């Protein structure tokens, strides 16, 4: 989806039903049409859902009132579209039900067998009639209208209140329209009690991420409290948030005593106030565009991005190909809404129109890297948001040592009963994966010491058993758990890879086949092969450990099954099983880093469950909160916990963070865990399950090496395609950048690289299978196109590092 920002577009919400939304729309439309100074352009009013049709027909009402009640209208009473070419004005209805109830009830009645006819349900414009609402048709319709450069004003009127259900399935309006997130004009309730309904509606919109630049009250019979209610609401709100609270939009003539039921008596002359109101909105709209421009221009000067070589972004000013910042305006479900500034061809334009050589466009991109691997239930999940809001309202943040609050208590029990089931008895809270791992290390070393693996005189020599290709975070201690690489050795003189780092065997799809065996779902022959491999691995690992007898080893530290930052590589499960068993025989504490792998990321609850081994300690983060807030935990067995009991305070685990057990984070995690409880392996094994066939096909392409596919993780390793690529690795890197750029520009998929790999993640509890399938198809196509294209990557798509 791409759209440009030419005109003013907004959605009109109601604090309740019957608050005068349609009257407000009619007044604004009328004022707009009568404004002789208005920018030339079309006006579109859209009523996506209409019930009580055709006696209630908001599009017709707005059309008549805006043009004047005496205007002759050619279209029939039940037309879905009214058009005045003379005024470049149209009013459109998409779905209409005869039943004068909520859209939910009307749709349910239609579904339940009410004669399905033109009268009970009108055809959605341009689509097939269906009793159940097709949300994608409605949203697409809105998005298509937004792409229309000829529109100068576009209003979308909702049905009923902000939280009225829109369809038989019960989806709430505020959720239904969230994907397009138009700025909202909230029509407040000007009756007695209206302060409460208006504020509640406002909060419901704001907590879902909507901008609400204006609250307006229609004034008229029965709506006499508008002044009072507006003043009360204005006093509650931060003007930065909602600059306009307008009580004076006199959309109805109070003196004429016209009732809302007889709207045909006509609007009074409200054009001046309505025009002023539209002007306010226009200013807001322009200020927003200026903020976007400022963000795009200034962020390079004030931000210091992670994993980013800023020097590479400083292109010579003459170059048009300066690296662009990705401005994420919002995110919902699987998608980002991106704002881009694009060059505009002004050569044929008159000087007046040539106000700027660039323009802003908006695109929707699939978040194919799961926002640094954190996303599982979709961005802006309403249930998670409600839980978070509740915890913030209840606690904000509170003290934790020797205190308990309900979200942390509940979460601890749930974690011990799920990921910690059968082995863990304690939960230690922190706020990111690296620190959760460092806490795990402190725990493991104490346990190792208690088990007699080293004494304090050798404490500074203690190392770990780890794996090449591993990653456990960017804090100093976590870096020491991985062998030297660009990411640690050159980053700090303090780095000291402390341990014995073994080279694990990997498993992947090569040229259509798993080698050695798929990590999950094995047949009998594969099981037999595993037994043989296990014996061999165990023998060589035991020899290796024996060779390093002199090094005190305080922990085995590993990412179960998949090394994330190491290239999304799947380790042969049998190897890790043998490694764990060999370390256990030597009483070395086992630490699992499940920061990336847990909570169904791999198509199973944890990596541990695929390995069929239990750790002494395990760290979790990322998907723990469904990707809504930062939170991490380290779980431990009772033996680890008791290793910290003692007479002295120094015997305790003296570790804590300001936001330990952050209540809102715990509440988000509880809500996410409730969703995870309903997941199954079959539905979360996306790339090595339902989509295995097209994934296998990727691995047969020229220039593609190993393909890793497990759960919601897909990674394609690029290999030299030509002798030139073989000789010059920059050419391979350029092809990789082309793949990413094609995925973004032609398919709207945001992917990132890892080394020579391109990886894609979907959200295990959110992404519909058809979108994951689209992603594989897009990747397939991008690999093909990038292989034949000779274009070198331009700087606009500077390759990110991770
Ligand atoms: C396996 C693993 N451990 C630890 C970390 C560090 O987590 P955080 O970035 O939350 O500090 C990561 C981050 O990607 C990870 O993948």
Helix content: 25-40%
Low-pLDDT parts are 113-122, 124-130, 250-266, 793-799
CATH topology of the largest domain: Rossmann fold
Count of domain modules: 3
Strand order of the largest sheet: 4-5-3-6-2-7-8-9
Any idea what the radius of gyration is?
30 Å
Oligomer: single chain
Major sheet: size, sense and barrel closure?
8 strands, mixed
CATH architecture of the largest domain: 3-Layer(aba) Sandwich
Distance between the termini: 26 Å
Mean pLDDT: 88
What global shape is seen? elongated
The assigned structural class equals: alpha/beta
Strand content: 15-25%
Number of helices: 24
**What is the level 1 CATH name of the largest domain?**
Alpha Beta
The count of DSSP E runs of length 2 or more, i.e. the number of strands, is 28
Q: Would you write up a description of this structure?
A:
This protein has 802 residues and is α/β, with parallel strands linked by helices. It folds into 3 domains: 10-291, 3-Layer(aba) Sandwich (Rossmann fold); 306-367 and 680-802, Aspartate Aminotransferase, domain 1 (Alpha-Beta Complex), CATH 3.90.1150.10; 433-648, Aspartate Aminotransferase, domain 2. It is 35% helix and 18% strand. The protein contains 24 helices and 28 strands. It has an 8-stranded mixed beta sheet, with helices on both faces. It has a 7-stranded mixed beta sheet with strand order 13-23-22-21-18-14-15, with helices on both faces. The radius of gyration is 30 Å and the shape is elongated. It starts with a strand and ends in a 14-residue tail after the last helix. Mean pLDDT is 88; it is low at 113-122, 124-130, 250-266 and 793-799. Bound molecules: pyridoxal-5'-phosphate. The site of pyridoxal-5'-phosphate has 15 residues, from helix 12.
């Amino acid at each position: 989806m791409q759209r440009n920002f030419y005109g003013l577009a907004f959605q009109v919400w109601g604090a309740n039903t019957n608050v005068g939304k349609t009257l407000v729309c009619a007044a604004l439309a009328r004022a707009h049409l009568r404004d002789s100074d208005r920018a030339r352009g079309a006006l579109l009013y859209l009523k996506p859902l209409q019930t009580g049709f055709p006696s209630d027909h908001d599009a017709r009402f707005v059309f008549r009132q805006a043009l004047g009640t005496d205007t002759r209208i050619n279209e029939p009473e039940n037309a879905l579209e009214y058009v005045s070419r003379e005024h470049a004005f149209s009013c459109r209805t998409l779905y209409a039900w005869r039943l004068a109830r909520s859209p939910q009830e009307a749709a349910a009645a239609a579904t339940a067998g009410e004669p399905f006819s033109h009268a009970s349900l009108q055809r959605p414009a341009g689509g097939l009639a269906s009793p159940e609402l097709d949300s994608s048709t409605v949203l697409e319709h809105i998005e298509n209208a937004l792409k229309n450069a000829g529109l100068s004003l576009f209003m979308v009127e909702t049905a009923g209140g902000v939280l009225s259900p829109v369809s038989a399935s019960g989806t709430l309006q505020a959720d239904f329209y969230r994907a397009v997130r138009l700025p909202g004009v909230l029509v407040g309730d000007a009756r007695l009690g209206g302060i409460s309904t208006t504020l509640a509606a406002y909060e419901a919109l704001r907590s879902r991420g909507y901008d609400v630049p204006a609250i307006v009250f229609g004034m008229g019979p029965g709506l006499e409290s508008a002044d009072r209610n507006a003043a009360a609401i204005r006093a509650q709100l931060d003007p930065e948030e909602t600059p306009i609270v307008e009580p004076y939009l006199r959309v109805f003539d109070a003196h004429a005593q016209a009732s809302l039921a007889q709207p045909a008596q006509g609007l009074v002359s409200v054009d001046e106030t309505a025009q002023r109101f539209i002007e306010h909105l226009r200013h807001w709209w322009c200020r927003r565009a200026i903020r976007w421009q400022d963000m795009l221009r200034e962020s390079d000067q004030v931000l210091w991005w992670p994993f980013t070589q800023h020097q590479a972004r400083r292109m010579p000013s003459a170059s048009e190909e300066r690296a662009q910042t990705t401005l994420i305006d919002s995110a919902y479900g699987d998608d980002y809404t991106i704002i881009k500034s694009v060059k505009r061809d002004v050569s044929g334009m008159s000087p007046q129109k040539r106000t700027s050589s660039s323009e802003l466009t908006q695109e929707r991109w699939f978040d194919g890297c799961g926002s640094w691997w954190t996303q599982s239930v979709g961005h802006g999940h309403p249930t998670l948001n409600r839980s978070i809001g509740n915890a913030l309202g209840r606690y904000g943040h509170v003290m934790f040592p020797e205190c308990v609050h309900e979200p942390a208590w509940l979460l601890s029990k749930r974690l011990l009963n799920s990921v910690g089931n059968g082995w863990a008895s304690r939960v230690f809270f922190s706020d990111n994966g690296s620190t959760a791992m460092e806490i795990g290390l402190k725990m493991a070393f104490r346990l190792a010491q208690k088990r007699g693996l080293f004494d304090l005189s050798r404490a500074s020599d203690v190392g770990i058993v780890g794996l090449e290709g591993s990653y456990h975070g960017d804090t100093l201690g976590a870096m020491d758990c991985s062998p030297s690489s660009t990411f640690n050795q050159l980053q700090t003189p303090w780095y000291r890879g402390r341990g014995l780092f073994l080279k694990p065997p990997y498993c992947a799809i090569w040229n259509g086949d798993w080698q050695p065996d798929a990590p999950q779902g094995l047949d009998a022959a594969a099981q037999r092969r595993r037994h043989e491999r296990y014996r061999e691995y165990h023998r060589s690992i035991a020899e290796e450990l024996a060779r390093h007898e002199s090094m005190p080893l305080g922990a085995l530290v590993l990412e179960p099954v998949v090394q994330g930052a190491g290239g999304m590589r799947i380790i042969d499960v049998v190897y890790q099983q043998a490694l764990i068993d060999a370390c256990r025989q030597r009483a070395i504490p086992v630490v699992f880093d499940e920061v990336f792998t847990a909570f169904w990321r791999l198509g199973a609850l944890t990596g541990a469950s695929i390995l069929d081994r239990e750790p002494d300690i395990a760290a979790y983060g990322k998907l723990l909160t469904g990707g809504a807030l930062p939170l991490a935990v380290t779980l431990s067995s009772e033996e680890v916990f008791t290793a910290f009991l003692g007479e002295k305070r120094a015997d305790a685990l003296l570790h804590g963070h300001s936001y330990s057990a952050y209540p809102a984070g715990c509440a988000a995690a509880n809500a996410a865990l409730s969703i995870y409880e309903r997941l199954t392996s079959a539905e979360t094994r996306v790339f090595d399950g339902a989509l295995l066939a097209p994934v296998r096909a990727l691995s047969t392409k020229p220039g593609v090496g190993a393909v890793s596919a497990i759960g919601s993780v897909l990674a394609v390793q690029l290999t030299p395609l030509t002798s030139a690529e073989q000789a010059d690795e920059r050419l391979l890197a350029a092809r990789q950048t082309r793949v990413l750029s094609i995925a973004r520009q032609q398919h709207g998929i945001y992917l990132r690289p890892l080394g020579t790999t391109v990886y894609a993640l979907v959200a295990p509890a959110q992404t519909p299978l058809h979108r994951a399938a689209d992603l594989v198809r897009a990747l397939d196509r991008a690999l093909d196109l990038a292989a034949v294209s000779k274009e070198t990557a331009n700087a606009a798509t500077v390759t990110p590092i991770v």
